Amino acid sequence: MLHIIFLFSLLFSSSHASVLDFCVADLMGPIGPAGYSCKKPAKVTADDFVFSGLGIAGNTSNLIKAAVTPAFDAQFPGVNGLGISMARLDLAADGVIPLHTHPGASEVLVVVQGSICAGFISSANTVYFKSLKTGDIMTFPQGLLHFQLNSGGSPALAFVSFSSANPGLQILDFALFANDFPSELIEKTTFLDDAQVKKLKAVLGGTG
Fold first, then answer.
1. Which residues on neighbouring strands pair with residue 68, listed in sequence order?
2. Which residue stretches, if any, does this entry annotate as coiled coil (predicted)?
3. Comparing C-alpha atoms, which of 72, 74, 71 is closest to residue 29?
4. Torsion of CA 124, 130, 135, 140, to 10 degrees
């Protein structure tokens, strides 16, 4: 009986094995829930598996004084279908990545310069945060609200990796105040007063 179960387990596991070595993203083709369609193997080159953009500092001259340089499937076709990707995070003094989520991936952050305060909120509303220094690593579970901010007086740099080629992104502040979400609904659902909502919409470009 045991050898029959073992045989079935082998058949089941092998049926889910990939029949392709890779699936380099065809950026001209359609994109679906599983990612981009595959580029024809004859058109794949070594360049598809190399991304050089993470060596260049991002522009932090903006409202949040921060920049994220992604190396997701749309920028780095070779990671399509592999369940991995990376990004560069630049934080000027007082820079912040506001509360946000990645619906499709967990994240690991490694600090390579400066100091960063980072944390996340669990589904039980427990807050986990830590001041990180050069060489420290922190993980952020998939789908949970999290943040990073520069906790020092000089620029900070970190690299992040994701468990998806396209982790997705939703920034809480922009979701609430950078669109036409009616102010009265925001006030009812967040307990903010009208003046606060209008002020934040003015800053982030929202209407309504």
1. 89
2. none
3. 74
4. 20
190 is in which domain, residue-wise? 175-204
Q: Is the separation of the CB atoms in 194 and 187 below 8 Å?
A: yes
DSSP-assigned letter for residue 192 = -
Indicate the pTM of the whole model: 0.88
Backbone angles phi, psi at 51, to 5 degrees: -130, 125
Using one digit for the tens of pLDDT, what is the confidence trace for 156-173?
A: 999 999 999 999 999 999
99 and 150 fall within a common domain: yes
pLDDT digits (tens, 9 = 90+) for 131-159: 999 999 999 999 999 999 999 999 999 99
- Binding-site annotation, residues for Mn(2+): 100, 102, 107, 146
- The answer on 188 and 117 residing in a single domain is no
Binding residue numbers for oxalate: 102, 107
Dist. CA 24–CA 81, nearest whole Å = 8
